[in-house]
Amino acid sequence: MSDMRSEMQAYTIARMIEKNQVVIVGTGLPLIGAIMAKKVFQPSCTLIVESGLMDFNPLETPRSVSDLRSMSRCAVPCPPYRYLGFQANELLHNSKRLIGFIGGAAVDLYGNVSATYIGGDYHHPKTRFPGSGGANGIASFVNTIIMMQHEKRRFVKKMPYITSPGWLDGPQSRAGAGLPPNRGPMAVVTDLGVMRFDEQTKKMYLAGYYPFTTPEEILANTGFPVDVSRAEPLPPPDEESIRILRSIDPTRIFLK
Amino acid sequence: MGKVYTLSEAISKFVHNGDHICFGGFTTNRKPYAAVREILRQGLGDFIVEAGPAGGDWDMLIGEGRVKAYINCYTADSGVTNVSRRFRAAYEKGELVMEDYSQDALMLMLHAASLGLPFLPVRLMQGSSLTDMWGISKEVRKTIEKLPDDKFVYVDNPFNPGEKVVALPVPQLDTAIIHVQKASPDGTCVIEGDEFHDVDVAVAAKNVIVTCEELISNEEIRLDPTTNRIPPFCVAAVVHCPYGAHPSQCYGYYDYDNPMLKEYGAASKTDEDFKAFLDKYVYGVKDHYEYLDKIGASRLLKLKTVPGYGYAATVK
């Protein structure tokens, strides 16, 4: 079952997408999950990417957010600034339909993400990453689901460099920083399970684990203690769902 | 026909050492690679770079030490390398002077440049280290003429007292280089599919070089102006350069050359392999046409997009 980790993640993502949602996706497993949601669970959802491709529905797996596989089958190829304006206006309208998937190199207790570096310091990093991309804007304005590899070094108690702001230091801190307080991280989906954020404290807790993982294993791979008392087993994809996921990414660009 | 140049002539006339420069395209789509290879061959550098969503284009120039200051938001050949490897190596070794903005901020800064705005107020980057920490300090910025002294400043929203917003500087570009599907001798450009930030930088920059898949007449390009995106007076040089975005994609023409992107991804892991890659594909050829010969006709033809799919699909 453990060789099904990426299918399990993509399936978990697909089940998180709700009716009529506008879903900001990049690449990787969120894209595979979102395509499955669009095909199977929530055909009313629409997919958009930060390059400006609006309402795309690819036949073949796109490798990038600007891929012709998305561009040639979208409703409107907007310039990126128009996408950014749409994202900001959804917030100004207090619309509830937008959800964003972001990735990163590390995440902390409050869902703050670094996509810039890990190890060392900002000016002398041990490992430098490509940078924010569109994730900072998404994390600022949109409810997010964060993708992360579940490793101790990637789950750090306090993020030394925040590329994409989460709940910062707790419940009041987004408003204090000039960010909308009613938007923020909803979940972290990893190769071991799903973390969510406590409504009162905004601290991360373990919400779900996969058939091939245990809360103890997840705790052992998290760099800080989290509440595991609310953790529930997550349903695995059935054979048909696995078949569909593999047909979306037959050459296993993102499914490992 | 005054604006039609060979690639070599256009680069030597309109790209200068120390230019504040921006390329069009988006990671692995419509990147002006032929122009990048010619810049490498001509030995030009010391660039102040608004990188936008970059990939192998700027990675090669960084790897060859041609960048004086790099304004980064994202640098990777998505789906091939999760981070451009020369970029990473140069920064980790302390050899790259670099600033980080969010891609949102950078794209809006380029758009603001095209609109002629004096500065750009945004709600972006607040509460994050993108405001708290500067990749290039004020002291270093003061030594680089073409960079503003401040990464950004906080200002009050004059229409909503008490609200603090981030005021971003608007870049003043010397040079923009973009690759388009069609252009005419007077500089009029067709861009099909997503324009990305190409139109913004073409309007904003003092000197604009356009490489194009097809050179068509000034009369023909005006018969149906619906896909025309850039007016003639914004463009300094037009270069007929088929497959000029290879190995990235070009909407309506060809897909990315994924094996080539992978070859670069692997080669760029080490100094030696990177040098060997450039010797083979950049310095080892005289011009873009020799490069195309090296890639080979059948390989290029197999990249052609299939109508109905929009990429190099097997028709089923």
Describe the model:
The complex is a heterodimer of chains A (256) and B (316). Chain A has 256 residues and is an alpha/beta fold. Chain A has helices at residues 5-16, 29-41, 68-71, 80-92, 135-141, 173-176, 215-220, 239-248; strands at residues 22-24, 46-48, 53-54, 76-77, 98-102, 106-108, 113-114, 117-121, 124-128, 143-148, 155-156, 185-190, 193-197, 204-209, 232-233. In chain A, strands 2-1-5-10-12-13-14-15 form an 8-stranded mixed beta sheet, sandwiched between helices. In chain A, strand 12 (185-190) and strand 13 (193-197) form a beta hairpin. Chain B is α/β, with parallel strands linked by helices and 316 residues long. In chain B, strands 1, 2, 3, 4, 8, 9, 10, 11 and 12 form a 9-stranded mixed beta sheet that branches. In chain B, strands 5-7-6 form a 3-stranded antiparallel beta sheet, with helices on one face. In chain B, helix 1 crosses helix 2 (33-42) and helix 3 crosses helix 4 (85-92). Chain B is globular and about 60 Å long. The interface between A and B is large, with 59 and 62 residues.
Q: What keyword list fits this structure?
A:
A: 256 residues; alpha/beta; three-stranded mixed β-sheet; 8 helices; B: 316 residues; three-stranded antiparallel β-sheet
In terms of topology, how is this protein built?
The complex is a heterodimer of chains A (256) and B (316).
Chain A: H1 5-16, E1 22-24, H2 29-41, E2 46-48, E3 53-54, H3 68-71, E4 76-77, H4 80-92, E5 98-102, E6 106-108, E7 113-114, E8 117-121, E9 124-128, H5 135-141, E10 143-148, E11 155-156, H6 173-176, E12 185-190, E13 193-197, E14 204-209, H7 215-220, E15 232-233, H8 239-248
Parallel strand pairs in A: 1-2, 1-5, 5-10, 6-11, 10-12, 14-15
Antiparallel strand pairs in A: 3-4, 6-7, 8-9, 12-13, 13-14
Helix pairs in contact in A: 1-2
Chain B: H1 7-14, E1 20-23, H2 33-42, E2 47-54, H3 56-63, E3 67-75, H4 85-92, E4 98-100, H5 103-115, E5 120-122, H6 129-132, H7 138-143, E6 153-156, E7 164-168, E8 175-183, E9 189-190, H8 198-204, E10 207-215, H9 218-221, E11 228-230, E12 237-240, H10 258-267, H11 271-283, H12 288-295, H13 297-302
Parallel strand pairs in B: 1-2, 1-8, 2-3, 3-4, 8-10, 10-12
Antiparallel strand pairs in B: 5-7, 6-7, 8-9, 9-11
